[in-house]
Amino acid sequence: MIATLLSGDAPRSRVLSLLLLAVLVCLALAPFLFPGTRSLDTAARICVFILLVASYDLLLGYGGIVSFAHTMFFGMGAYGVALSCEYLGRSWGALAFGIGAGSVAAIAAAFLIGLFSLRVRAIFFAMITLAVASAVAVLVSQLSQITGGEDGLNYQIPRALTPAFKFMDEPVFGVRMNGKLLNYYVVLAGSLVGVLFLLRVVNSPFGRVLQAIRENDFRAEAIGYRVVQYRVAATCLSAAIAAFAGALYAIWLRYVGPSTVLSMEIMLDILLMVVIGGMGTIYGAVLGATLFVVAQNYLQELMGLAAGAFEGLPILPALLSPDRWLLWLGLLFILSVYFFPTGIVGRLRDGR
Amino acid sequence: MTHEILTTHDLTVRFGGHVAVDHVTCAFRTGELTAIVGPNGAGKTTYFNLISGQIPAFEGRVMLAGRDVTRASVSARCHAGVGRAFQLTNLFPDLTVLENVRLVIQSKARRGFSILSTAASQVALTERAEAVLDRVRLTAQAGQKVSALSHGNQRKLEVALLIALDPLVYMFDEPTAGMSVDEAPVVLDLIAELKAQKDRTILLVEHKMDVIRTLADRIIVLHNGALAADGAPAEVMASDVVQEAYMGRDLAELGA
Ligand SMILES: Nc1ncnc2c1ncn2[C@@H]1O[C@H](COP(=O)(O)OP(=O)(O)OP(=O)(O)O)[C@@H](O)[C@H]1O
Ligand SMILES: [Mg+2]
Fold first, then answer.
1. Interface touch A215/B161, C-beta < 8 Å
2. Are B75 and A207 an interchain contact pair (Cβ–Cβ within 8 Å)?
3. Which of B92, B119, B122 lies nearest to residue A216, judging by beta carbons?
4. Residue nearest to ligand 1 atom 16, measured at CA
5. At residue A280, what are phi and psi to the nearest 5 degrees?
6. How high is the ipTM of this complex?
7. Could you report the average pLDDT of every consecutive run of 10 residues in chain B (256 residues)?
8. For chain B, where do the domains classified as CATH 3.40.50.300 start and end?
9. φ/ψ (deg, to 5) at A224
10. Which superfamily, per CATH, for B1-81+168-256?
């Protein structure tokens, strides 16, 4: 049963299995284990980024394709929900339409970019995605009448997914049984299903062809696989799932803006997460995203504490000042790539 | 069954000013094993590249089973029945031996685009891949990564991929190069078996004369990209052309 769910792709390392299980349990019980708006927000972000990073892993880790447009697809999903809820009104239909429209737009964009650039050289594809993604980000900021520009959009989602909706009067274990809680579980379930779907894809005949193409595209073509078609298909599939992750994020936040769903910074974060976790494993996305988002959210605080502890000493407090958190994150990244070139998952599987 | 399955007409390619394959017109019949010989740099591999489509032709045509495939993609020609093993081992190094072969079987079954079932659940395809590994004596290595294989075993796998494809036209490019004396017979026996089947066309680039003598129905000689001789083995081997080509002397000198 579990093997079927995981598409026969077991974690293949006891420590890895335990870590994954821990992440799953923590996320599943997050509202009860870590009460508070802020921690639930972090948990939801983790769910969304796990799916986003896993969909990027399909492209980079399995297909060997470097794309800088992944945030754009993510943003398309998010703006799909936002625009649809803003202009079609507050209803489940509008929400569903938004998710669908965002995904279709992402697939269409991926198809066009892929068709025009994947037949040439891999580096050309990377450059085109960079150009298109930047252009779309500018476009979204410029079309402020429709998209809200830099300010973004606040919109209404069905009431059942908002804090205003209470489905039980009494709190359970001190947690209010409201729409926000439901919303969190929608995000979690969406992410879980998405990741399991990706596991299925990478272990399917199609996933095997992608790996073959990554290893040796020349020979893959010689044994009868039309390489361009597979690369375009992988790009579309990965874009669709990124858009779905974006839609989940938009449902959770009830707000979208260029800096939350479209910025190049997010693209870099995705790259870091997939590399730290371990490319070509899907599970790497789970660990990479969890670690990264937690660090992003709590490293600053931790450093504030540390800086306080070393008060009076020379240099140290300055180095540990919360403003330097990006420096430390960068350092962590360099160290992790240096010591675990195959990522956390690769490392755990080798050392079993 | 002696119909011409594969023909090339005036097939030509230039690299800069250098004519690597020079107006080669030749027909290959079903059931026939043709050895292609010629000194290093004669254009044998390039001729193969033109037939299987890795290099586009400058001039001329490639006809496969009556269809003009000159403009067809490599993968389309593969599905049309042209199969190729490479002179320089050309595999999927990070995948297992079994997976390398399975990928070929999967391609032939045209299952590459299914995403909802797992590859592991397609037991019939895996079994066929295992049968091929058995034929090339690589069963014991099935679970190993290709990058961990010895050179000889990588050469066997190179041939296994072609066997798994089971095309109408088999093209072997020095299949036993670099193999030890006890490994080479596995591959040569397989080629002999294919030949005995009588329903396949085999093109074999080979330098070893004893191999050619035992296997070939016909020999063609390429020299400086041009077809220099074509005929029954005894005849061609006795000819001055082959003698001289393999002594490394220039054909032009010979004519003089
Ligand atoms: N892609 C290429 N670009 C430029 N020149 C090439 C290319 N491929 C082959 N050549 C040249 O074409 C000529 C024929 O090469 P080819 O590899 O076909 O010879 P061959 O008969 O297979 O030789 P060998 O017995 O060494 O394998 C050589 O001079 C080679 O340098
Ligand atoms: Mg050659």
1. no
2. no
3. B92
4. B43
5. 70, 35
6. 0.91
7. 85 94 96 94 96 96 95 96 94 97 97 93 96 96 96 94 96 92 92 94 93 94 93 86 62 39
8. 1-81+168-256
9. 110, 10
10. P-loop containing nucleotide triphosphate hydrolases (3.40.50.300)
